[in-house]
Amino acid sequence: MTVFWRLLFGHFLADFTLQTNFINSWKRQSFWGMLLHTGTHPICYLLLTYPYLDRFWVQTDYFSLRGWTCILLLFLFHLLEDEWRIYTIRRFRTSDSTLYFLWDQVIHLSVIFLLFPLGMYDREAALIPEAWPIIGVLLILATHFATVLIYFIEKDWFGAHYPQVDEKYLLILERLALTCCFLLPGSWWVALVSFWLGHMFYLRYRRVHDFSWFSVGFGGLIAVACGIFARLVYYNGSNFF
User: Fold this and answer.
1) Where are the domains of the chain?
2) How far apart, in whole angstroms, are the C-alpha atoms of residue 99 and residue 103?
3) Beta-carbon neighbour count of residue 150 at 10 Å?
4) pLDDT per residue rounded down to tens, the chain (241 residues)
5) Burial of 71 (0-12, 13-18, 19+ CB in 10 A)
6) pTM
7) Can you say whether the dihedral through the CA atoms of 141, 142, 144, 150 is positive or negative?
């Protein structure tokens, strides 16, 4: 599972953290923008899995694929899936939606699952051989992924617009701080989590910022869920799972 979690971290890193508003807009208008976005994925994969690239990740009775080849296939499949998503939106003159967004992620993660080297690590009983890539995934889920998901839900239900840069990153920092509170040692982290949640809702109640109640509440819920899992992984790891 070592390579799987690293590939998963690389995917979320490239698809959310490194995909700025500019790149997201450019990829919908130009193939070069799409190439820039999808090209960040193999770079992240290579950096995160370089100790395992020369090993066979996929081995069947008919063919075997080394890590290099699998990463190339991941890049090609991601490029095709993203191009197909944009083509269908243009072809059928529909808007991007929550279902489109979630289905797109299901396709990407399914391809990663098919190409990660399960057989190479079948001697490892632990579902979680190392904690850092999983915690990395959880932090991205609580920050950038949550921002995009909340945007699509609010757009579909309330006709909201994508948040401005300052609003977007302020909420990201709020959820990042909340999630990181769960990683503190001892037991006083509970009080800090409670304080930070109260702080987020107080700012919204006093209208210090203009975020919606849904954005603060649902985003806080995602951050709490990710924080709980991050704490379990960090302090228990394979012993828990």
Assistant:
1) 2-124, 134-239
2) 6
3) 23
4) 788 999 999 999 999 999 988 998 899 899 999 999 999 999 999 999 999 998 888 877 788 888 899 999 999 999 999 999 888 888 877 778 898 899 999 999 999 988 776 544 544 446 778 899 999 999 999 999 999 999 999 988 887 776 666 677 888 999 999 999 999 998 889 999 999 999 888 888 887 777 888 989 999 999 999 999 999 999 886 554 4
5) buried
6) 0.89
7) positive
